[in-house]
Amino acid sequence: MDRPRRLRRTPALRALTREVHLHPSQFIHPIFVHERDTVTDIATMPGVQRHSIESAVQQAREALALGIPSVILFGIPDHKDALGTQAYADEGIIQRATRAIKAGVPGINVIADTCLCEYTDHGHCGPLCEVPGQSGADAWTVDNDPSLDLLARTAVSQARAGADVIAPSAMMDGQVAAIRAALDDAGFTHVPVMSYAVKYASAYYGPFRDAAGSTPSVGNRATYQMDPAGGYREALREARLDAEQGADTLMVKPALAYLDVLNLLKREFDLPVVAYNVSGEYSLIKAAAAAGFMDERRTVLETLTGMRRAGADAIITYHALDAARWLAEQVIL
Prior knowledge:
5-aminolevulinate 2 binds at residues 279, 318. Belongs to the ALAD family. This is Delta-aminolevulinic acid dehydratase. Its EC number is 4.2.1.24. 5-aminolevulinate 1 binds at residues 209, 221. This protein is α/β, with parallel strands linked by helices. The chain has one domain (23-328): Aldolase class I (TIM Barrel, Alpha-Beta Barrel), CATH 3.20.20.70. It has helices at residues 11-16, 53-65, 93-104, 144-161, 175-185, 206-212, 231-245, 259-268, 279-290, 296-310, 320-328, and strands at residues 27-34, 40-41, 49-51, 70-76, 109-114, 128-130, 140-142, 165-168, 194-199, 249-253, 273-277, 314-317. Strands 1, 2, 3, 4, 5, 8, 9, 10, 11 and 12 form a ten-stranded mixed β-sheet that branches. Strand 10, helix 8 (259-268) and strand 11 form a beta-alpha-beta unit. Helix 3 runs parallel beside helix 4 (144-161) and helix 4 crosses helix 5.
């Protein structure tokens, strides 16, 4: 008689035979940075704050001490306008935060989110244009080609400030090629591009938009972010285009509802694959744990392990600091 339970009998046996391993070195810790000297809580994301530059440095230092080698920065400027000019200003919030973190925490890997939605007064990922013949939410969209120049300028400004990785998330056609060419022309041939290659128009982004102040004031993002029901063909096409244009890693966002897509990319491409465990996924667990419906620690580690099992080489997660602490305590699932 076959008895698979023999290998589950003790924690030591379970640990011995595991195929999937979760480690803090696989985590990327997101940090929201605003132009204030205060740290403010984000109501829809319990445990997550908007940080001052000084506090962001402390967050990066804490992450590295826990074995997390990477942070990704999201900026919240005081001034927003139609073109998102603070995204590519050399004294913009992300540029200043990057310089401070690189100076204060040697060895940390700083990833710069490269988009305009946090910097525009309309909350979209580039300058807007009207869509002929459309009305309602689809009457406005991002003007693709003019946005490429602004994204490229943003990437170069971030690299000049010391960003180790550029992570374009706007979902503009041709953005990876434009950014790669601009980085190379500016002498940043060594800076990799972590592309948000497969990014869906998802309901799971709600808390992030509160945190970053990037809720669209008109229209929606369905005209440029991917259709959740688009299927594998669209995902493969987007990922293949980014790979051909010079992306060094591919990302799937959100992660939890799209683990099948993440696994598809892992099998189809010879590039590292990143999962973004997004704000809505984080807040769902936080809310359930606060209500006593679920064990937060076990749920978080199980969720992140599932992302690893699906093929994620790295995971952007707001649980990063807590998960690293729990792993250090050798919690057994």
